[in-house]
Design goal:
Blueprint lengths: L9 E6 L4 H13 L4 E5 L7 H7 L3 H5 L2 E3 L2 H4 L5 E5 L10 E2 L1 H12 L4 E5 L8 H5 L3 E3 L12 H15 L15 H17 L11 H12 L3 H17 L3
Parallel strand pairs: 1-2, 1-6, 2-3, 4-6, 4-7, 5-7
């Protein structure tokens, strides 16, 4: 199955979740980052008003959630299942951080379904459940306190996946950089204006002007910005009668 976005091929599998608020918050975390396929394995609670309230605008994900009576059923047709766990256990699984795993998960999801598996709030995932997953994903956390909320863990994974998309970078408006002669023309007018208003001693311009050049060099002047600055200088000169 090939979908428009690899995110469409990623399913979030919550195993034996006991708090409806976590299901709702996980759905919200998913939708904000563009994931939509929620699977619930033997949930210990109903999708109630609290779940819907915590889901906010992602109630549609709750309504479309797939209920499964086993982890095997939830993982059917997937080519890769990655278990999010705080404990490595004594298992031979490859282990990744979310940032390491995200581009690899997206690569697999471009062609076939991939699952992210999260255990219950109290017990996490059992060894048997972990054995059904190919990878482990460990979220880096304070070793003295690694108790991350279930929905927060879903948010971390969803964010890293979204950030790893090729089109995730928000494009900046295109600005035309100022040309050398335009910048030099601005500096010449700036120096004349500073001398005219008595701010710069024409006998010793070597102290101030190099510093101003460094300041504007760090800014990286654009063509429109140079025009604005020269307009300001023109207004100053007009007001001072120059």
């Amino acid at each position: 199955m090939n979908r428009d976005s690899p995110l469409d091929n990623l399913r979030v599998v919550l195993v034996e979740t006991s708090h409806p608020g976590n299901i709702g918050a996980a759905a919200r975390a998913m939708k904000v980052m563009g994931l939509s396929r929620l699977y619930l394995v033997n949930p210990r609670c109903a999708i109630d008003d609290e779940a819907r309230a915590r889901a906010s605008g992602a109630v549609d994900l709750l309504e479309a959630a797939v209920l499964s009576d086993s982890l095997d059923a939830a993982l059917a047709d997937t080519v890769l299942a990655a278990a999010c766990t705080a404990r490595r256990r004594d298992l031979p699984h490859p282990a990744y951080t979310p940032r390491q795993a995200a581009p690899l998960l997206l690569s697999e999801a471009r062609a076939a379904p991939v699952a992210l598996v999260f255990g219950s709030e109290t017990f996490g995932l059992s060894n048997e459940q972990l054995a059904r997953c190919r990878w482990l994903i460990n979220i880096p956390a304070n070793p003295a306190y690694m108790s991350l909320n279930l929905a927060a863990a879903v948010q971390v994974l969803a964010y890293e996946l979204r950030s790893s998309l090729q089109d995730a970078t928000i494009p900046l408006p295109a600005f035309e950089p100022a040309r050398h002669e335009e910048v030099e023309g601005f500096f010449a007018e700036l120096e004349r204006t500073l001398v005219a208003i008595g701010f710069l001693d024409p006998a010793s311009p070597k102290r101030l002007m190099p510093r101003l050049r460094r300041l504007f060099a760090r800014a990286g002047l654009e063509k429109e910005e140079v025009a604005i600055l020269r307009g300001i200088l023109g207004a100053i000169n007009k007001r001072s009668g120059q």
